[in-house]
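re: ur question from earlier - yeah i can do the single chain one, its not a big deal. heres the input i used so u can compare w yours
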Amino acid sequence: MKITAIVIAVLVAAFLIFAALRPDTFVVQRSAVINASPEKIAPLISDFHNWSSWSPYEKLDPAMKKSFSGAPSGQGAIYDWEGNSKVGKGRMEITMASASLVSIKMDFVKPMEGHDVIEFALEPKGQSTNVTWTMRGPNNYFAKVMGIFFNIDKIVGKDFESGLAQLKSVAEK
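and the output i got, formated as tokens:
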């Protein structure tokens, strides 16, 4: 009995140490080539009113409550949402907007608190634009433990791929 308890304690300690040594930040990033200019794509991103046409998160809860405040678009535009367990509750604020970069501060309230930065980089490539969607944020201890069981890059990355495909479809019309 004593040896079993010691082995279990060592395994638990090893697991907790392993989790503690995981990175302090996370990054999820996906890219797509869109056959449109950055000037045509940027307004689809920098105006939260346009997100319903391409964001995968907008479709997860058709009854989601949304409110817009601050600037109508671009820097200072604010988007608050509250919905079902798939979309949770949070707020986004555009902190920078140009034809080459849109940066957004995102604060989740539910299902768990989170404070992340989202960036959309738009790089012209001839007649097309390479759009890179990046989300980065702190990886607290709880997130480090959860990251052992759930791969945020795979989970959120699928949403980014879907969103970029929708953005491509809308921008190329």
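Strands lie at 25-34, 65-70, 77-82, 89-97, 101-110, 114-125, 128-138. not sure if urs matches, ping me
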